[in-house]
Each structure stands twice: as structure tokens, then as C-alpha cells.
């Protein structure tokens, strides 16, 4: 239940597997909430206007650009940031392993968003084709890798 006064909300949600309750300014963007209030700096701020995908997180399993969403919209939902992406054994997730193995990370600024978008796709469609992967990642800009290694990494993770 959102309790509302003119300036704040009492937010109740799940973040990376844990329940969270927090009083937040009603005008807080989800991106600022994640980075500034929760201190989860793996989620990056690039363009700030929905063009680059660096700020991507999972909300109820769907990949969203957190710069375009308000924190109050998390009410009753589950947020997963890159810090919450793990393998079943608590170690690296298969996508993180294949990104490393394929050399799909250079400066790394885009990497959290790419892994979040890829995870959303593979949860929804474990047998995603190369075309599916390309389509899914159209909202994620990378200035370094040329994308080939990224696509290869997601294809390899798909088979794990
Ligand atoms: S910072 Fe959100 S899409 Fe670029
Ligand atoms: S690795 Fe540098 S922007 Fe993608």
C-alpha cells in the first residue's frame, strides 16, 4: 500500500531477493533510487533518456530502463539489478561467464545493461535465436566491442 503525502511515498518492494521498505521522495527516478539511495552502482547512468540501456534492470522479470521509471512504480514489485544476477551456486551467472570468456567486455559501462537484457530474453525464451538476441539488444548501446563478441557470449550462455 502506498502511503502518500505531498512529497513522499512509503515504498514496499523486493530488491535482489530481500524485502525492502523505504520512505522515498515521490519524484525519485528508479535510477536515482537504485544508485543513490540503495548504493547499487552497477546500474549505470548513460543518456538519462531511454536511449542507451546502461541503466537497465529487471522489474518483475521484464527489462526496463530505470531512467524512465519512477521509484514509486516499484510498489509491490520485484527489482533485480546486476548485483542480484548470480549463478545457482551464488557464483558468476552463465552470462557473466560467457561475457568474460568471449571478451565481450571492454570498458564495461554497457555490460550490466547487456546482461540484464540478455537475462530477460533467456528467461522468456531459453531457445532464443541469434535474430532474437539481436532484436532484444537493440536498446543497448556499446561503443567498444562492435557487438559480435556480445552476441556470441549470449548465444553460448543460451546453451548452458
Ligand atoms: S541511462 Fe537510461 S537508457 Fe540511457
Ligand atoms: S564495453 Fe565499453 S561501451 Fe560496451
Largest sheet: 5 strands, mixed
The CATH topology of the largest domain is Ubiquitin-like (UB roll)
User: CATH H-level name of the largest domain... which superfamily?
Assistant: Beta-grasp domain
Number of helices: 5
Shape: globular
Q: Identify the strand order in the major beta sheet.
A: 2-1-5-3-4
Q: Which molecules other than protein and nucleic acid are bound?
A: FE2/S2 (inorganic) cluster
Q: What portion of the residues fall into strands of 2 or more residues?
A: 15-25%
Q: What is the distance, rounded to the nearest whole angstrom, between the alpha carbons of the first and last residues? A: 40 Å
Q: How do the SSEs run, as a string of H and E? A: EEHEEEHHHH
Stretches with pLDDT under 50, minimum 5 residues: none
User: What is the CATH class name of the largest domain?
Assistant: Alpha Beta
Structural class estimated from helices and strands: alpha+beta
Helix content: 25-40%
> What's the total count of β strands?
5
- Rounded mean pLDDT score: 95
Description:
The chain folds into two domains: 8-84, Ubiquitin-like (UB roll) (Roll); 94-158, [2Fe-2S]-binding domain (DNA polymerase, domain 1). It is an alpha+beta fold and 160 residues long. A five-stranded mixed beta sheet has the order 2-1-5-3-4, covered by helices on one side. α2 (94-102) packs antiparallel against α5. Helices cover 31% and strands 17% of the residues. The chain is globular.
Amino acid at each position: 500500500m502506498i502511503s502518500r503525502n505531498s512529497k513522499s511515498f512509503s515504498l514496499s518492494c523486493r530488491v535482489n531477493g530481500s524485502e525492502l521498505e523505504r520512505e522515498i521522495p515521490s519524484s525519485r527516478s528508479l535510477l536515482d533510487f537504485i544508485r543513490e539511495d540503495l548504493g547499487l552502482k552497477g546500474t549505470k547512468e548513460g543518456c538519462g533518456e531511454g536511449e542507451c540501456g546502461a541503466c537497465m534492470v529487471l522489474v518483475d522479470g521484464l527489462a526496463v530502463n530505470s531512467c524512465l521509471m519512477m521509484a514509486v512504480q516499484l510498489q509491490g514489485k520485484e527489482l533485480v539489478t546486476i548485483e542480484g544476477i548470480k549463478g545457482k551456486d551464488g557464483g558468476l551467472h552463465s552470462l557473466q561467464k560467457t561475457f568474460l570468456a568471449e571478451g565481450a567486455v571492454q570498458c564495461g559501462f554497457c555490460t550490466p545493461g547487456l546482461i540484464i537484457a540478455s537475462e530477460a530474453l533467456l528467461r522468456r525464451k531459453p531457445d532464443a535465436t541469434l535474430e532474437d538476441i539481436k532484436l532484444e539488444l537493440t536498446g543497448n548501446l556499446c561503443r567498444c566491442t562492435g557487438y559480435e563478441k556480445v552476441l556470441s557470449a549470449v548465444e553460448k550462455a543460451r546453451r548452458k
